[in-house]
Structures are given as C-alpha cells and as structure tokens.
C-alpha cells in the first residue's frame, strides 16, 4: 500500500481503536467519566456511519487502583490481578452507560496471548469478534489481567490492539494518546519537537524518537506504539497515532483529515493464516539459510528446502513456528516447520531427494512450504 494518502483512510470500513490508561484515568487512577463519555460519542458517530468498530481499552487496573484507594500501581502480579478484577467491572459499567443512549450494544472480550498463539483459540476469537460485528455490537477488548501471568501477557495494549487488528483483518488501527501524534522527540521536553504527519518506514531515527512510559499507571509509551506500528505496517494495515484528549478526533481521522501521524503500510496484505504465523504464533526456534535460499524466499516466493539451511537453533517439533534468518542474523521470514529440529540437524545442506536415505522417511520435500511461510523482511528486492 505504498503511496497511501490520507484520502484512502476514508475507505476503511473496519476500525480498531485503542485508548490508553492516561486518557481514561489521567494520572490519578480515577476514571475520567467526562472523557470516557466524549470517547463514546466519537465512537458512536463513526459507528452510525455504518463502520465496524472495535475498542481496545486500557484502564481496568487503573480503575481498580482508584477504587481500592491505592496510592500507586500494584507491583506484584496477584495485586495487579486483584486491581483488574475490581476495575474491569467498573470500566464496563461506565461504557455500557455511555453507549446505551446511542442504542449501541457493547460486549466485553477478554484475551490472553494464548488466545492468539494457539491456532484453535485464535480462530475461535476471530469468529466471536466477527459474529459480534455482524450483530452491530461494539466489542470492547482488554487483556484478561485477572488470569494472565508474565509468560502469557501481551505486555501492553498497543501490542494487543495491533494483534487484534490482524485478528479481525481490520482496515485501520487508531491509537489514541495524550499527544497529537508522533514527534521527532518528546514535545514535553523539547519545544522544538516537530510532529511527523506520515511515516513510511520505521527507521532507527524514528525508533530513537520514542520515549518511555507516559505515566506510572500505564504499561507502554511511544516505544510500544512503534512496536504496534511495525506489526500493523507489516500486515498492510494503516495505523494512526492521534490525540484522545480532544473531542472529534476519530471522525476527523475517518474523514481523511490531516490529524495525528499516519503510519503507511506495505503494499500487500497478508492472508489471515500468514498473519497468525508472523505475529501470533510463538517462535520455537530458528534456522539460518544461505544467500541462495534467502533470495529464493524473498525474490521468487519459493518454499524453504533443506539444501539452503546452514544452521539449526533451538528445540522444536514439526508444526511449530520457526524464524528464518540469513547469515547476518537478519530475520527474513517465519513459517511452520515440517520437520523437528533434530531431523533438520541431519538433513540441513542436503537435497530433498536425500531425506529418506538420511532419516529413513520422507514426509515432505520442503522444510517450510510457501503456503505456511510469510516474509517479515523485504530488502527492496
């Protein structure tokens, strides 16, 4: 989607909107009901235009902190889970109150990383969200903090929002923050910082402009939004960072106005299965391939054969997702391996015709078939 212009954002029909803790709770942990109502009014306005809307909302732990009278965000996982258990109901109660006058039904959807990484649960979540949208319901998505532990956490709702956008094959992802967009540096610290209206590539300079967390209650900052941008751009989904502090931002973005920062995605869109391989499935190992194999993957869209593999790392079984890197360590693709790591150690560098002789069986010619492989790096070839 190279050359994407603001006018093309107007074509989006399915939109994922993420709102951060600092928007919903400020810095105190108390829910800002006036701002929540303003957000719902904006969401309702674009919903009434016939668009499909999914809201990824932070604020559950922050709301719980406020209700429990805590002076700061809990540090331990059980305390965070307790705060989330208290805050989640409060958060949804207010959303329901604000959506009802607009005759919009809202639904709570709680996800953990396992709902994305497990293929069956991924499809279940995808089908559930699709059914809710078919009913013209607004799903309100959050991480299931009451049960999530560090090993299965998304880590922040920017990352969650990007994965949800992939999950539902969204046309647009909007991250609402306390800034007007993405700046050359932190505008709160540097009065000469400039707003960047459009970003076509995540360069080291762009990454360097990202700051830290925005508040003590938040789990992310601009750095996590850059991570979300990498996911959405790779998936072919435009992403906009814009202010959630101003009423009317969402309708303005949808109308293609010069609001916030637009991250322009790559031209092609990945299929849903390949989105899951690239961003949802946990990597269990990696293989290093020679230049010939790298060119075959990048330039010709070929499957990965054992002859091009020079090194196997990690312990994985057939059916696991693996990373494919070149000899410099640059990741170029991800895919589902047809062979175990142990088997690949034996057949690496050999032709497919030698597999049976080496292993005693020959299930596949390909280590990773092109239908189960997605390119995650394109060097312009």
Characterize this entry briefly.
The chain has helices spanning 6-9, 21-25, 33-47, 60-68, 77-99, 114-117, 119-134, 157-167, 204-208, 222-234, 249-254, 272-280, 291-300, 341-347, 355-359; strands at residues 14-19, 52-57, 106-111, 138-143, 172-177, 198-199, 239-243, 261-263, 283-289, 309-314, 321-325, 331-336, 373-375. The protein is of the alpha/beta class and 381 residues long.
Describe the protein.
- There is one protein chain.
- The chain has 381 residues and is an alpha/beta fold.
- It has two domains: 6-273, Carbamate kinase (3-Layer(aba) Sandwich); 282-375, PUA domain (Archaeosine Trna-guanine Transglycosylase, Chain: A, domain 4, Roll).
- Helices cover 37% and strands 18% of the residues.
- The protein contains 15 helices and 13 strands.
- The chain has helices at residues 6-9, 21-25, 33-47, 60-68, 77-99, 114-117, 119-134, 157-167, 204-208, 222-234, 249-254, 272-280, 291-300, 341-347, 355-359; strands spanning 14-19, 52-57, 106-111, 138-143, 172-177, 198-199, 239-243, 261-263, 283-289, 309-314, 321-325, 331-336, 373-375.
- Strands 3-4-2-1-5-7-8-6 form an eight-stranded mixed β-sheet, sandwiched between helices. Strands 10-9-11-12-13 form a five-stranded mixed β-sheet, with helices on both faces.
- Strand 11 (321-325) and strand 12 (331-336) form a beta hairpin.
- Helix 3 packs across helix 5, helix 4 (60-68) crosses helix 5 and helix 8 packs parallel to helix 10 (222-234).
- It starts with 5 loop residues before the first helix and ends in a 6-residue tail after the last strand.
- The model is unreliable at 212-220 (pLDDT under 50).
